[in-house]
Structure formats: structure tokens, C-alpha cells
Amino acid sequence: MSLTAAQVVALFETRYDYQSARTMLKVVAEDAGLPSADGPFDGAQLDALAVALESRNDRAEAVVAGLAEAAAAAGKGAGSKASDKTPPAKTKPKAEPEDKAQPEAKAQPEANASSDAKPAADEKSKG
Description:
Blueprint lengths: L4 H8 L5 H14 L11 H13 L5 H16 L4 H46 L1
Helix pairs in contact: 1-2, 2-3, 3-4, 4-5
């Protein structure tokens, strides 16, 4: 089973507007090393599109999931590269910034307090 360019554009339109969907398909097809964005796309090409789009980090998870699902249905199988990468990428970045943000928040009030004290001391010695 393969998808036509119109079917792939419909997937892209879940994230992008009319013109952007068509432009992004051309850009992502080029990134994936496909000969053309005109379709039809087989399972391996759909998987390559999904991986290329996912590497752009363009908040297109729904499109990537749709492409990976279509690639699996087209015979690529459940071992699709994009479907394997998607779950870990969603969980790891969310956990790390939260842990790092908390210590920084504690350090900032102390820095502000000490920086407020220094100008006051400087003003007294100048005045």
C-alpha cells in the first residue's frame, strides 16, 4: 500500500495551513533524500518522511505519528524508526528542565538580595 501526495499533504495539514503543508512536504522530502514530493510514497519513503520531519522539532508529533502509522500499514512494520523515537523524546525533555529549574529559582532570590545590598553600601560611601 502506498499513499498519494494528496493523502500525505492531508496529514501535513493537521499541523500546517494549506500552503505551508505543501511547502513542508517538499522540504521534508528533500531532507529525507526522496527523489520527489509528488508521490506515491511507499512504506520506506513514509518512514523517511516521518524521521526527517521529526528531526526538525517543529511540534509536528501528530503528523509524524500519522506518517509512521501509514508506513507500518504500508508494510514497513511496527519497527518504524519514527514510531520508535517518538515516546522517549516526549518524556525525557520534560523531566530534565523541571529538575534544573527548581535549584535556579532558589539561587536567584539570594543573588538579588546580595546585589541589592551592594548598591546601598556604595551609595553611602559616595554620599
